[in-house]
Design goal:
By secondary structure, the protein is of the alpha+beta class. The protein contains eleven helices and 15 strands. The chain is 36% helix and 17% strand.
């Protein structure tokens, strides 16, 4: 990825305000070091970063460049007083009100979604391959962990085993703490893994796990059944799994992400009201990226990579979800595995 790709998105006669840490890391990780240096030391300041972001730059660029502190009004006045047009990513901006920026002596503020997000959403061939390798590592770790689950093990012990297997398989680290839930935590979407609760033969285990491989994330959710669970539990899980793959076959490039959500609700039929979270999110160097099902106008574009994760959540009973990662090709969606 070279600076030429940035030319597709950047109007060089405009000034841009980037405030998201991951936007800045994207520029650094994807060989845009020259561009970042140019912006930081240019007489036209196109990047404004607070102190937190300044450490990101200092850690990734050999030389020292001054980064302005957005909380210092005098510095802000000196930076902005001569800027006519400032393009701002409203979604990540900490100064959300236009008046805040106008008070900094900017004549015209243009609001738009992040240019960097748009670039991040369209994956290149090498990025898709790294995402595939990350998910393969994740799937292999799940397979190994499944073989080592025994009665009376705790949620925390399974979570620890997941992290160990990820590292043994070459992952850098896990994106977040794995979610391992059984018994009364089946229907808890943000379960904190217990070191006390022990697995019994009547339990099902919901595992939501992810890892980071060469900076790229993976994401999957599966359910494991012990010997004495009911048939209805197994049937509901198979239903959710089928909905996942039916959605993958149904969706096409340029459909809206919201259409995905509607299709999943339709397929879940009588259980649709128990499905209360978003169906899909993009995956890259963050586990949850844009675009996603919550973005009303977002459409699937060629080389998007995102999750499909329908679920049935029966309060105080069971929690089922089956999650895969897919890449959008010009013809159809393909599972990354």
């Amino acid at each position: 990825m070279q600076i030429s790709r940035l030319n597709e998105y950047i109007e060089w006669d405009k000034n841009y305000l980037f405030t998201g840490e991951w936007d800045l890391k994207y520029l650094l990780w994807k060989a845009y070091i020259e561009w970042v240096e140019l912006l930081v030391k240019s007489s036209v300041i196109k990047i404004l970063a607070d102190k937190r972001l300044s450490w990101t730059i200092r850690d990734n660029i050999w030389d020292w460049y001054e980064i302005f502190d957005s909380r210092n009004e005098e510095i802000m006045k000196s930076v902005f007083s001569w800027i006519d047009n400032l393009i701002v990513n409203w979604y990540e901006l900490s100064m959300r009100r236009e008046t805040d920026l106008l008070n900094l002596w900017v004549e015209n503020v243009v609001w738009q979604n992040s240019i960097i997000n748009e670039m991040r959403a369209i994956k290149q061939t090498e990025e898709i391959e790294l995402l595939r390798q990350s998910q393969q590592t994740n799937l292999k770790a799940f397979e190994l962990v499944s073989k080592n689950i025994k009665l009376w093990i705790t949620e925390a012990e399974i979570a620890r085993l997941i992290k160990i297997k990820h590292l043994e398989l070459g992952a850098d680290w896990e994106s977040f703490e794995p979610i391992v839930a059984f018994r009364e935590n089946w229907a808890n979407p943000h379960n904190i893994n217990s070191s006390v609760r022990k697995l019994t033969s009547k339990d099902q285990i919901l595992i939501d796990m992810w890892c980071v491989y060469a900076w790229y994330c993976s994401d999957m959710t599966r359910v494991i059944f012990m010997d004495d669970v009911s048939q209805i539990q197994k049937d509901l899980y198979e239903m959710v799994k089928k909905v996942t793959y039916d959605c993958m076959e149904y969706w096409k490039v340029w459909m809206k992400f919201t259409q995905m959500q509607e299709k999943a609700v339709e397929l879940l039929w009588e259980y649709s009201e128990t499905f209360w979270h978003w169906l899909s999110h993009s995956v890259w160097v963050e586990i949850h990226e844009a675009p996603s099902s919550r973005d009303k106008e977002a459409t699937i574009q060629v080389w998007n990579v995102f999750s499909i994760e329908p679920g049935i959540y029966l309060e105080k009973k069971f929690w089922f979800r089956y999650e895969i990662m897919v890449v959008a090709t010009p013809e159809w969606l393909i599972e990354l595995k």
